[in-house]
Design brief:
By secondary structure, this protein is α+β, with helices and mostly antiparallel strands. The protein has one domain (5-100). It is built from 1 helix and 4 strands, in the order αββββ. The longest helix is centred in the middle third of the chain and has 81 residues, at 5-85. The protein is rod-shaped, with a radius of gyration of 44 Å.
Amino acid sequence: MTFAAGSASDTLSIISLVVGVVSVVATIGVGWFSIWLSLYFKREADAVNAKTLDLLIDVKTDAKIVSSIMAGELKSYGEASRQLMLGGKFSGTTGTLVAGDVSKAPVQSSIVITTPANPTQEGGSDAVSEQRI
């Protein structure tokens, strides 16, 4: 088989044309695939975003409920502490005040310090001294 002088360049031209067309088709295919892939990931991200938003709304609602309950509890604790410190009476573990008005409560404080009569003496002595401040 003999080749003419012009046939080798024609064959090379045809191969170049085929490779160019395949390259263009592959580029378009990869482009469409990348567009489809980005749209797919966008849809997935939007779905996750919607679920996250629902969870955040639930957390926000729960936080409001907890904070509203805790605010009342802290207010009651503060009132009870003030009443107790200023001479009011406090009933057990219920957290309710029995009597006393902060504006009318008598302010009295006394601290009793009990120490052994002879601090150098080790045990055996029941003698104590009291000091009121």
